Amino acid sequence: MNFCASSMSSITFSRRCLSNPLISVSSSSCIMSLLSIKNCSASVTTVTGASPATESTKPKQKKEPWLIVGLGNPGKKFSSTRHNVGFEMVDTIAEAEGISMSSVSFKALFGKGFIGDVPVLLAKPQTFMNLSGESVGAIVSYYKIPLKQVLVIFDDLDLPFAKLRLLPKGGHGGHNGMKSVINHFKGNVGFPRLRIGIGRPPGKMDPVAFVLRPFTKQEREELNFTLQHGLEAVRILLLEGFDKSATFVNSAKKIEQMG
Fold first, then answer.
1. What is the b/e burial string over 34-52, where b = at least 16 CB atoms within 10 angstroms of the residue's CB?
2. Contact criterion met (CB below 8 Å) for 124 and 93
3. Per-residue confidence of the chain (259 residues) as pLDDT tens digits?
4. Distance between CA atoms of 223 and 40, rounded to whole angstroms?
5. pTM above 0.85, yes or no
6. How would you classify the pairing of strands 118-125 and 103-105?
7. Fewer CB within 10 A of the terminal residue: the chain, N end or C end?
C-alpha cells in the first residue's frame, strides 16, 4: 500500500512529462514515474482478482451437436404430399435459421448451422421412405451423435390433421421410415421424435394412396401454422430442454381443444 500511495504522487509529474513537448519520454524521471504507476495498477488487480484478461480468456463450454432429420420421399412427384411433412418441417427450420440444404451427403440433402449457440445438422434422406435408416444411421455413426440428440420428424396417420406431438422415445407405429431408422439403430428406440398429424383417410380410401395426396388450400394454410409452431418447439428443445418443449407442444394442443 505504501508503494501505491507513493507512486500516486508521481501521476501528476508523469502527466506533465507526457503532455510537455519539451520533455523527452525517454527521460529517466518520466520512465521511473510511469513504471511506478504500472506496478501499482498490477498490484491492485492482483489483490481484487478482477483481471479482465482472465475473464475474457475463460473458455466457454462447447455445445454438443444435434441431428434433426425429416422423413419423406425424394422427387417432385412426392413434393408437398402428406408423407413429406417431415421434409417440410426441416425446410422450415433451415429457412428460419439461414442454413443451406444444397449439399448432398450420406444419401441425404444435408446442411450445417446453428440454432442459438447449439450446432445442428439438418438432413432429408433421399433413399425413399422405407430405406431412411441407411442415411440416418450413417450420419449418426460418422458424427458420433448420441441418440438422445437425434430428433426425427415424420407424418402420423393416428394424429388429427396439423397436430403435433413430441415424444422422448417409442416404436415405429407402423411407419416404414421410422421402422428403417430403428433397424439401423439396432432396435434402440431411445431418441426423440416429433410427429405431425395428417389425419385418417376418408371412407375406405387406401392409406397408401392417402399419404401420397397433396393438401387442399385450407389444409395448406393450417399446416403452415403448424410448421411455425413446430419450429418454435425445436428451438425450445435445443435451447431449453426436452421437458419445456414437450410442455409447449402439449399445452398448446390442450388450449386448442378447449377453444
1. bebeeebeeeeeeeeeeee
2. no
3. 454 444 444 444 444 444 444 444 444 444 444 445 445 444 434 444 445 545 455 566 788 999 999 999 999 999 999 999 999 999 999 999 999 999 999 999 999 999 999 999 999 999 999 999 999 999 999 999 999 999 999 999 999 999 999 999 999 999 999 999 999 999 999 999 999 999 999 888 999 899 999 999 999 999 999 999 999 999 999 999 999 999 999 775 444 443 4
4. 66
5. no
6. unpaired
7. C
Work out the angle between the directed axes of helices 132-143 and 176-184 (0-180°, nearest 10): 40
Given 83, 172, 175, 229, the catalytic residue: 83
What is each CA distance from 174 to 171, 193, 196, 249, 256, in whole angstroms? 8, 14, 15, 23, 27
Residue showing cell 507526457: 18
- Which among 139, 171, 140 has a CA at the least distance from the CA of 158? 171
User: Residues 58-85, buried b or exposed e (16+ Cβ, 10 A)?
Assistant: eeeeeeebbbbbbbbbbeeebeebbbbb
Residue at 9: amino acid letter: S
Residue with cell 440428440: 149
Cell numbers placing 5: 500511495
The dihedral of CA 91, 94, 97, 102: what is its sign? negative
